[in-house]
Amino acid sequence: MREVIRFINKYDPGIFPEDLPTRDVIQLGSNENPFEPSEDVRMAYIKSLENITRYPKPDYSELKRAISEYTGFPPENIAVGCGASELIQSVCNVLIEELDRVVIPMPSYTLYAIYAMLRSASISFPVFKNYRIDPEVIAEEDAKLLFLCSPNNPTGNTIDRETIKAIASSSQYVVLDEAYAEFSGKSCVDLVNEFDNLIVLRSFSKFFGLAGMRIGYAICHPPIAEAIEKVRLPFAISYPALNTAIAAIKSREYYEALKDRIVSERRRLEKELSRIEWLKPYPSEANFILVRVEKDKEGVDKKLLERGIVLRDASIMGLDGIHLRITVGRKEQNDALLEALRSLE
Ligand SMILES: *Cc1c(COP(=O)(O)O)cnc(C)c1O
């Protein structure tokens, strides 16, 4: 076995509803969309049954046309994959040689480090004051590949456009993970036209609520997109995934309306959480809120789980103290959470 395998911590997916004894679980731990899929997505899934004896066509041209319509980029700029997760892996496979320098500002999504390590990269994890990434410090790091996430998981803040431009102009390759971009209403994907070293990752799991289907895409300079397509598993996206993704883009107004509800619930939740004395919510532009917990953590986790409420433990590198990440749910789920938290005061 390769030596590096021993040093890799398996990705921690948090607690799943299946892990709890109760049936009425309020899952606020995985940043999923809490609403039902659109009727068109449902129908597309059922219609996929007609195709399941066949291989999906691996150029995924129909999916790319739909993504093209959604993003405004031509299909040459698009690479697809089995979730944005696979694209993180593919980008590492395409760009990183042994001991290349990879920079991952912390705290951020833990999957970047796993795939960079698998390429035997030399990784640095800078931590910035108030999570404000400083382009000058980044430039000094002299990275082959840098991972940025905006809105960032788990802090929820976005990185401003000028910072991304400054970083892209002084770096070799930059991944900008925009898995939550639709919730912030801010995207820097158009900068791909200006910077041929910028790779923007997107997902169907959050805004389009298709986490169970596994579809993601990258928007980047055509040669990089082509390289990613080369290393991807040829049939990585299944027929049902492909068809539901296309249908989701067609029902985009439905998802826009859900997003508006999620964003207004986020604002309400933020306000209510800040009224709880032992919680400090971070301002968020995503569909989740990070909170610092000034109380005995075991007590909080246990009490919430007893009520069937799942949050994500966000005590990761770069965050001091106890932190929990709360996915914004439907109103009644958020109310149940608030009530449970208040009962702990
Ligand atoms: C959820 C998430 C992803 C990936 O999601 P997929 O389900 O693999 O598309 C990527 N990046 C961040 C920061 C995420 O939170």
Can you walk through the features of this model?
The chain has 345 residues and is α/β, with parallel strands linked by helices. It has helices at residues 3-7, 39-47, 61-71, 83-95, 111-118, 135-141, 161-169, 181-184, 222-231, 239-250, 252-274, 297-306, 331-342; strands spanning 26-27, 78-81, 101-103, 122-124, 145-149, 173-177, 198-203, 216-219, 279-281, 288-293, 309-310, 312-313, 322-327. Strands 2-8-7-6-5-3-4 form a 7-stranded mixed sheet, sandwiched between helices. It has a 4-stranded antiparallel sheet with strand order 9-10-13-12, covered by helices on one side. Helix 4 runs parallel beside helix 5 and helix 6 packs parallel to helix 7 (161-169). The protein is globular and about 55 Å long. The model has no long low-confidence stretch (mean pLDDT 96). The structure holds pyridoxal-5'-phosphate. Pyridoxal-5'-phosphate binds next to helix 4.
Please give a handful of descriptors for the protein shown:
345 residues, alpha/beta, seven-stranded mixed β-sheet, four-stranded antiparallel β-sheet, 13 helices
What's the arrangement of secondary structure elements?
Elements: H1 3-7, E1 26-27, H2 39-47, H3 61-71, E2 78-81, H4 83-95, E3 101-103, H5 111-118, E4 122-124, H6 135-141, E5 145-149, H7 161-169, E6 173-177, H8 181-184, E7 198-203, E8 216-219, H9 222-231, H10 239-250, H11 252-274, E9 279-281, E10 288-293, H12 297-306, E11 309-310, E12 312-313, E13 322-327, H13 331-342
Parallel strand pairs: 1-11, 3-4, 3-5, 5-6, 6-7
Antiparallel strand pairs: 2-8, 7-8, 9-10, 10-13, 12-13
